[in-house]
Amino acid sequence: MKITAVIISRNDNYGGHLAERATYAINSAINTYDEVIYVDWNSETYSLLYDIKDNLQLKGNLKHFVIPPQAASHLTNFDPYAQKCCEVLARNIGIRRAKGDYIVSTNIDIIHPKREDIEKVINESDGNTFITLSRREVTWDIIKKFHGGELKYQDWKSLRDYIYINSEERHSDEKTVSGDDYSIIN
Q: 3-136: which CATH number, 3.40.50.2000, 3.30.360.10, 3.90.550.10, 3.30.450.40?
């Protein structure tokens, strides 16, 4: 089974410490998935990957696509109210290029589970299942505390194990549309 992760973002320091969080996240994705497609959408300067490339543990499965501001404007029909990081279009660009049997659509700041955990979820489902995995609530302070205030990108596996043992799954029961169990997925 081949699994592809599609990750989208833009170089805007969203949420603070984006480069640091992204380094841990992309390293975990590179380790977990057969193919990782990173789509940088509408970064005003340059792709976030250029800031973190020296701290990535590359193994030949990362693909990088850049949608510069001029192209992003064109693709959103020059709409001045279009989302700065148009997630729908960016994800579609990544998904169309995916070669995996399964596709994980995720964000830039997710530390990915172990490969065997993803495979277990897939193997226990039928072929017509849309699966969502709970995001763990992890703040930058938790990461700093774990590493004693230092950045230890090479030690992301220990951080992942720590997070999965010491953080709780997020449970969001709210819905955006009453009576629609899928409206939480926007």
A: 3.90.550.10
